[in-house]
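Methods: example folding runs. The two proteins below were folded one after another, and each record is reproduced exactly as written to the output file, sequence line first and structure-token line second.
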Amino acid sequence: MAEHPADVVPTLELRGVRKAFGPVVALRSGSLVVAPGSIHALVGENGAGKSTLVKIVAGVYRRDGGELLLDGRPVDFGSTAESKAHGVAVIYQEPTLFPDLSVTENIFMGRHPLGGLRRIDRAAMYAEAARLFERLGVRIDPRRKAEGLSIADQQIIEIAKAISLDARLLVMDEPTAALSGVEVERLFAVARSLRDEGRALVFISHRFDEVFALCDTVTVMRDGEYIATHATAETPVERIVAAMVGRDVAELFPKTPAPIGDPVLEVRGLTSAGVFQDVSLTVRAGEIVGLAGLVGAGRSEIARAVFGVDRYDAGSVRLDGRPVPPGSPRAAIDAGMAFVPEDRRHQGLVIDASVSRNVAGVVRAGLARLGLLTARAENAAAAPWAARLEVKTGALDMHAATMSGGNQQKVVIAKWLATEPRLLIIDEPTRGIDVGTKAEVHRLLSELAGRGIAILMISSELPEVLGMADRVVVVAEGRITADLPRAEATPEAVMLAATHHPATQHAAQHGAAPHPSTVAPTEAAS
């Protein structure tokens, strides 16, 4: 870990902090040292443990082990109120203000200044709010209602509240995600002024250009562990990306080569206002296309629009050359699409129904005879697919709610394979399942591709994308920023494109230049 001068006591120090939620370990060894008068970036892939670490500092979670020190003194917060009382403030991406109250009332909620007869001294309160905004160099009317304020102004109000409480440590969690360029610059000016006052700031962001423009130091986390701390002025972005990724994906996800055929899915200019824009992609028979990007980039929304769950404003979707009507999952199914959603418990399964009823769910209409559907017919339709996917259940009448996450995922996949689709869209195929079952799901995807099914796979796990995909399409802030053949889809290239770093402009052009049809099947699948 980077050293600080011996005579400077860190405002915040975490040493080997651990946190688990049942069998899931969110933090194995979280460490962070933030000096007063500095802005310290905290970066890492999705699931690296950043949010858990922040919530421990904020008093939302209690750590299971390790040390937490503020100004050199050990602390153990049991609540957010206790954390705030010790001078910690967290500025979230979307603050939660009381919309019917004024800006000033939101700042001084629960601690209004009192005048004569112990009545609220509103004049003093408005004057103090005005002084806070002047100190921050921003122009906000202290008397206006919070309702209708921009996200940027709401964040400034939260910062003003923190300063009024004399917060010494401010944590900004993805604060720029919903801001315009001008609003980002204003926020950065405020952050620098707080740093110059001697306060310590932690800045969490996926945008490397912002990290390097604003922060003095950057700490990298990976898989719930501290990896490294570097001075931003002395560290190239490629070094940070390499530290974030740090895995040999070829060993984790061996892939079976499959011949790649003609286009099955063709998406052109798909646009949904405020969600994604001008999305074009192709998935071919026998091809696994990985849709990569950070959480919130718009990947799942694109998939839902392609399948007809959500409507879109412009563009077209074609399957095997034929247009698929927008906004109609039934039309998508009839065309030959299948969709395994991210939330299998609430969107993919009837959790209180049997395995056979779930597996036969989409094809149930075709199983009825004279308007009647029997359990025998459901079992007959479900049994081959349950066996094929090795669903570990003693009987087809077992309820899905009693099964493991891995077996639930297999049931959802079996349900859709029963429709004999031409295209399988699968969102987060292995989230929440154990390593052994992950391998089984990966083998299944390779087998399906080998049978000529086109697969569009969305995953937040970069090793999974790189290990399984013939081609990687990267989405950042609702736009495709790179289209990379397997041979060019390195962890660094994908991560740079996902963070929309300026260096990705060349990578996106380079990756999109060769049309997928020019990539030899053996090369793409190797």
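Second run, written to the same file directly after the first:
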Amino acid sequence: MPIRRRELVALAGLGGSLSAPPLWAQGKAPLLMDGKKTLFQKVLTRPGALLAAKAGDAAGKPLEPFSVFFVYERADAGGKPWLLVGAGSDGKTQGWLSADATVPWRHMITLSFAVPTNRQRVLFFRERQGLTDFVNADNAAAETGKLLKEIGAKGNLGPTHPVIAAEPDRFVDLQKQFYLLPVLEAASTVLKTGHRARVVKVASVTRDAPVAQPAQAVDNSTGIDNFNAAVVFVIDASSSMQPYIDRTRAAMEEVLRQAEAAKVASRIRFGLVAYQDDPAKTKGVEYLSKIFADPNQTATREQFMAATQGVKATASSTRAFAEDGYAALDEALRKINWNNFGGRYVVYISDASAREGNSPLASTRLSTAQMRAHAQERGVAIYAMHLKTPEGKADHALGEAQYKRLSDWPGKGPLYFPVEAGDPARFEAGVKQMATALVEQVKAPQKTLAAPAAAPAAAKADAVQESVDAVGRAMVLAFLGRQQGVKSPAMFEAWASDRDVRNREIPAFTVRVLLTKNQLSDLQSTVRRLVEAYEKTQLDPGSFFNQLRSAAVAMGRDPSKLGQGKAKNLEEAGLMGEYLEGLPYQSQVMGIDFSTWTNMSVGQSQAIIDNLKSLVALYQRFHDDVDRWVKLNPAASDGDKVFPVPIDSLP
């Protein structure tokens, strides 16, 4: 069941950390947050913070900005508050910090800049009123453009200007240059246009102290000549697909010859992953999914063509009309090293819908929404080419809706391209056009970068070229950000709008929750237990609270509140763990009570169970993605690492 966001409200006081270790394993425990039983007080160090041997000492050890410490004691010295801190929750303390040299870490909600497709960069304001007045102005979009140019030329607008800073003009890669935009305050406002927007007060925290900005515009083109791209075809190789496999191969040979002629073959690589069905359960098929050509290894046209010669449609029928295409997509995302490429594209080709995570024949257990998130967390755009053959007429509507969700790109919309009647010639022309456009993008990335961002509604007649241009601009900006080590703005506290000033439908930020491995493991275990409880409850609705009580006992939670007094659902009973309490989103799972559950249709309750099952599989992928785990304090143990979980991936 999709999450329905509610307003960001009063985030101060929201907390998150590892549960307290057993008393026998600790010298002393960190201080608990007010009203919490397992969440400890934490702070982030400001640039220039010194770790002193005792409270009030002027001298101390310089600390790396952005380090996270647990608070063990609070004391006054010299008329100022001081904190006894430790790198972890294990009872070991490192020394004292002046409270003025820290930012209270009251929650685990943080923002990251959204993909820069068709949106203007974010401006940060000193005061909330200044931001509100600005976004309500009739010329806000035009004025934003002027201020961004001025900041680019001067570095800043001066100490009295309402605008403190701006989002960098190249994308900041959260994996390469990890940063925090922790939310300190938030409020909702209705603009004169009638749109509802959230204004948020954030602290921009980076690992580096502020440095003087150059008094000239930044050269965006530095390193742009090295822009490269990988295009991986994920193609259905079931019995009906041989004509399209042949056409793909023919189109790609011509495109690769063009790339060679343009002398960009070394900077655009192609790959191919095919899928059939589980050979252990279906006679006559050779594989579930298989990487035939890895773009990291196919450096020439000859290598690509040779690697793809073995791709042939199976003569045997698969177990259902819907195919296990997400198995191949999952393999392409996890096993191909996308970090070597600036442009990252998958072209997904099928004449059938894909098996959703709730299908007993689906190997990944991931839903379409979770597969899309899986790809976009890696910066990969998915183009879906849907072959609407006459044989699949009954499946067309399902496949179209599914692939539009799968290919939805932030700020652009679905990258969905149907091939009416499954016409092989039209399909080949579409593959050739898309691949050629991507070759041209690599050949002249400056042109892509210089092109003005178009509003989503202003689509060109050439839908393929328009989509390649829109997504390509985001890819080039992300590449430059990684190449040039672009970081989030230096540390400050300021107000910003969570929506694009030009198009209020486009988000400016992605909301994330930082969870430790213990918390992610607890969340996965909790969701798995809830699945078991809900499945049993489907057979006997009257056992709703008894099943949840049993789940609570298994999870080490207090089952006594359920069904009694005010605690009538999971949120009020605290079954999901304190690290999720009060988060700024609304979930049907957290709010389900006896009446709601028993009045649901079988389809509605099954949809909730299916979504929870898919989340269990997604959390395992988060856990196994070792490159995404971040240690917020160099002296902390591995157990205190965190993963930036998108808020849409919570139950």
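Comment on the second run: Residues 23-105 form a domain with the SH3 type barrels. fold (CATH 2.30.30).
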